[in-house]
């Protein structure tokens, strides 16, 4: 696997400004003058060992998941894939692989790479050469009550919230930089608007070994495989999704709501 290296901040309007000094808003790098981030001449479909396009949908209202938008809606939308990169490590190779995979799958939409300031100029130029739109973002830091994570990897992920600021796009698909795309997944942009789509994760990884879910073999993907005794264990765990891939709609109000929620929500045990 490719190493993640990461760091994190916030804009003047961020509710967590008291944690870090004010910063300038993110900006788009390497965009030719006068050229908007319009879709490129390509198109993708993703397969990984853990994901398939048929199992991708976790909507707030699952019954809406099979409805498609009209052609007129599609034609008025600006869409794009987006990934995240931090540090000067080898993770840039994964992002290059992602860009190549989307291109090979003939995606019609661009890949935006949200980079933190510690990504070297050399790595940014490599991404530009791969046809990526490189966008500089400033770090987002967690509240003081959430800094006790064992690995900096988890802290750096707060900066991913910045992608909700990319409001020049109507809809985006986030993909971790170590995901490989083998088939076209552009059709996921056609899912009905107004919903967040992601893949339900399970609790089988060792990182969950301290939880009751792990101990009884509970899996939200197949909840009937293990009995959850609510009278003894309390309510079933909240829905948990894998943040390595999701479909979302950038929105400044949503971005600020997320920051507010992070500030008042206790970390998962």
Short overview:
This protein is α/β, with parallel strands linked by helices. It is built from 7 helices and 9 strands, in the order E-E-H-E-H-E-H-E-H-E-E-E-H-H-E-H. It comes from Opuntia streptacantha.
Query: What's the count of strands?
Result: 9
Give the helix/strand class. alpha/beta
End-to-end separation: 26 Å
The largest β sheet comes out as: 7 strands, mixed
Tell me the series of helices and strands, N- to C-terminal.
EEHEHEHEHEEEHHEH
Rg, alpha carbons: 19 Å
Level-1 CATH class name of the largest domain:
Alpha Beta
CATH architecture of the largest domain: Alpha-Beta Complex
The CATH superfamily of the largest domain bears the name Spore Coat Polysaccharide Biosynthesis Protein SpsA, Chain A
Q: What is the percentage of strand-forming residues? A: 5-15%
Task: Summarize model confidence as the mean pLDDT.
Answer: 74
Write down the CATH topology of the largest domain. Answer: Spore Coat Polysaccharide Biosynthesis Protein SpsA, Chain A
The general outline is globular
| Helix content percent band | 10-25%
Helix segment count? 7
Query: How are strands sequenced across the largest beta sheet?
Result: 1-5-4-3-6-9-8
Tally of domains: 2
* Model regions low in confidence, pLDDT < 50 over at least 5 residues: 1-75
How would you sum up this structure, described in words?
Belongs to the glycosyltransferase 8 family. It holds the Pfam family Glyco_transf_8. This is Hexosyltransferase. With 269 residues, the chain is α/β, with parallel strands linked by helices. The chain has two domains: 27-200 and 241-264, Spore Coat Polysaccharide Biosynthesis Protein SpsA, Chain A; 202-239, no CATH class. 20% of the residues lie in helices and 15% in strands. The chain is built from seven helices and nine strands, in the order E-E-H-E-H-E-H-E-H-E-E-E-H-H-E-H. It has helices at 71-75, 91-104, 121-129, 152-156, 212-216, 230-233, 252-264, and strands at 27-28, 45-46, 79-85, 111-115, 133-136, 171-175, 181-183, 197-200, 241-248. Strands 1-5-4-3-6-9-8 form a seven-stranded mixed beta sheet, covered by helices on one side. A two-stranded antiparallel sheet has the order 2-7. Strand 3, helix 2 (91-104) and strand 4 (111-115) form a beta-alpha-beta unit. The protein is globular, with a radius of gyration of 19 Å. Mean pLDDT is 74; it is low at 1-75.
């Amino acid at each position: 696997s490719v190493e993640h290296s990461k760091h994190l901040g916030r804009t003047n309007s961020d509710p967590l400004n008291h944690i870090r000094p004010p910063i300038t808003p993110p900006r788009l790098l390497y965009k030719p003058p006068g050229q908007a981030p319009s879709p490129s001449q390509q198109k993708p479909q993703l397969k990984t060992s853990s994901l398939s396009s048929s199992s991708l949908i976790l909507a707030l209202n699952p019954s809406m998941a099979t409805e498609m938008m009209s052609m007129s809606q599609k034609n008025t939308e600006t869409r794009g894939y987006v990934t995240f990169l931090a540090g000067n490590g080898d993770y840039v190779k994964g992002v290059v692989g992602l860009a190549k995979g989307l291109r090979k799958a003939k995606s019609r939409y661009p890949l935006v790479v949200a980079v933190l300031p510690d990504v070297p100029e050399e790595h940014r130029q490599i991404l530009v050469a791969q046809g990526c739109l490189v966008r500089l973002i400033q770090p987002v830091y967690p509240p003081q009550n959430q800094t006790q994570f064992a690995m900096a990897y988890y802290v750096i992920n707060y900066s991913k919230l910045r992608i909700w600021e990319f409001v020049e796009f109507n809809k985006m698909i986030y993909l971790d930089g170590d995901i490989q795309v083998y088939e076209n997944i552009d059709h996921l942009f056609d899912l009905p608007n107004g919903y967040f789509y992601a893949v339900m994760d399970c609790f089988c990884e060792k990182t969950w070994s301290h939880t009751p879910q792990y101990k009884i073999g509970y899996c939200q993907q197949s909840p009937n495989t293990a009995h959850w005794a609510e009278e003894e264990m309390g309510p079933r765990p909240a829905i948990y999704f894998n943040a390595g891939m999701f479909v979302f709609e950038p929105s400044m109000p949503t971005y600020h709501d997320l920051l507010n929620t992070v500030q008042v929500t206790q970390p998962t045990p």
